[in-house]
TrEMBL record:
Homohexamer. It comes from the Bacteria. InterPro entries: DUF34/NIF3, DUF34/NIF3_bac, DUF34/NIF3_sf, N-reg_PII/ATP_PRibTrfase_C. GO terms for cellular component: cytoplasm. This is GTP cyclohydrolase 1 type 2 homolog. One of its GO terms (molecular function) is metal ion binding. It comes from Sphingobacterium psychroaquaticum. Keywords: Metal-binding. Transmembrane segments: none annotated. A divalent metal cation 2 binds at residue 64. Belongs to the GTP cyclohydrolase I type 2/NIF3 family. The lineage of its organism: Bacteria, Pseudomonadati, Bacteroidota, Sphingobacteriia, Sphingobacteriales. A divalent metal cation 1 binds at residues 65, 103, 327, 331.
Amino acid sequence: MKISTLTQYLEQLAPLSYQESYDNSGLIVGNPQDEIHKALIALDCTEDVVDEAIQKGCDIIISHHPIVFKGLKKFNGKNYVERVVIKAIKHNIALYAIHTNLDNVLGGVNSKIAEKLALENVAILSPKSHLLKQLTVYVPRTHVEAVRDALFEAGAGAVGNYDQCSYNTIGYGTFRGQEGANPTIGEVGVQERVEETKIEVVFPAMKERAILVAMYAAHPYEEVAHTILTLENSLHTVGSGVIGNLPAGMDEMELLAYLKDKLKLSVIRHTKLLDKAVHRIAICGGAGGFLLSEAKRSGADVFVTADYKYHEFFDAEDDLLIADIGHFESEQFTQELLLDIIRKKFVNFAVLLTEIDTNPIKYYS
């Protein structure tokens, strides 16, 4: 299939517009129209991973972390980033990254960790706002159903577990066509009064263009009266981290042993034990220290994350237990997540997991 077929599907699940501003998710190397036959999935795209793709005949590498975060001005092979890009281009291997956009969706990286821990009632820890918009459009009664259906088909009107949601107000509109107008109803120079319905729908900001195209195509007027507003409302399926409950409470030492077993950890760095039962766990794969206040507000007993610095551990202030499990370790199951996602959709497409341990951090014990 074409690269675009695969990437468009992945971006339906984790839209690129959901990535953080510093990120570089998406197709980094490759032509979207190129044909691909076999994919290799890895957490990191290193030189060894590219060599593995060459050996196994893979023509696309899907990694969680982008190999390129900043703009490259020269390709001299002076560092591993340049060497990876040069080698991938030389061997016609596409490079695709699905990073913070996959972190930021329910069902993504953090949900996978919660699944490994068998957490219940999992929800986004810090939902994002300004991702929703509201469209108001005025439609003559004769075309209300057609316009509303077109908006729904384009992705408007989905709210939580509901779709085809709209609010409709009946009234009338007035207008007068000026010279050069070609009104659908009435005559140039004559004020018209038409029975209309005001349709209001909410939609994800990323779908705005498709929704407007659908609206214009279905609407009979030469000039379509409409407004679009950006909403403050949070989108509760999109945001940073997750929060969930253990099926049964356990003490802190049991919890640490449980984390070590379920997440295949060799070591856990943690704050002092608080001698209380653990029921509620906040999770952020990778560097999640920025979510500590959210974890506290959510009532978490433990915050599972990575990349904590020495002084940041003091910020726990005995409100909860911080468990730093390591960056690679917290995101390792992303590879399994991507494998399952792709195999379920493209049953005849070959997808492999890397056999390379890309964790740059080693432990001596």
